[in-house]
Amino acid sequence: MNSAAGLRLSMLLAAAAACGKVNDMPPSVDGSISDGPPIDAVLGSQNNPARTCAELHVAGLPSAVYWLHDAKGDPPFQAYCEQDINGGGWAMVENSVRRADGATATFWQFTYADRLRQLGTLAVGQNYYNGSLYLIGTEYMDVFVDLQDKTAVAAVMTATGINPSTMQFTMPKLTVGDTSVYTNQFASGWSAQDFDGDADAAGNCSTMFSNVAQHYGGCWAYNLGSDADAPVLDGLVIERERSMRRNLPSGVAMRLT
Ligand SMILES: [Ca+2]
Questions:
Q1: Against a cut of 0.90, is the pTM above it?
Q2: Which of 98, 111, 124, 218 is at 20 to 30 A from 21, Cα to Cα?
Q3: Of 15-29, 69-83, 87-101, which range is least confident?
């Protein structure tokens, strides 16, 4: 399955969000802030990053790009929070957008060295990938959005972590959804044009799928993206008899701890 091709919107759900309040520095005598961020910084802004998208969802904030911070004290980072699909609270890990000519952009031909990097543009209308989110995600969701903006959640899965070398999830588990998506994609290894981590002994699935880098359990047909399956109807899922076309957003979402 060519998972990168598209259909993934990875969102991180921040279940046990800390308060995320970083603006508790006392004001100086003249009322200005003596140190630290402004006291009225909006939650989710760079000066007051939220702990997770779920925290922002609880605060009633809509789907958009926000600033978040992880539990390790790393510098704040930006994420697109999906607040409508499947309960909201999801951070976008990967988004794949169909091009006007029907193909998936070659953006997805990234290498093993880029597996934990942020690539693309952080917007639902753009290809996007942020592998670093895999390091803090606990719950994942594969989402398809067709050309009529109809949304389908292919699968929801959990993991306790990921091996950053193999990109294999630790203790992966299917919560609900398509078993084949879970088995052949989420719970499988990770392949790139220069890293054959898939379970298929005969070849490198990533290379077969035009070097699309993603999780693969085997080189099975999946006509979303640049894999050139026949018939060439890019964006059409032909295996699960779902005539769903990918538009945007499509991707994997995960929840952050
Ligand atoms: Ca292989």
A1: no
A2: 124
A3: 15-29
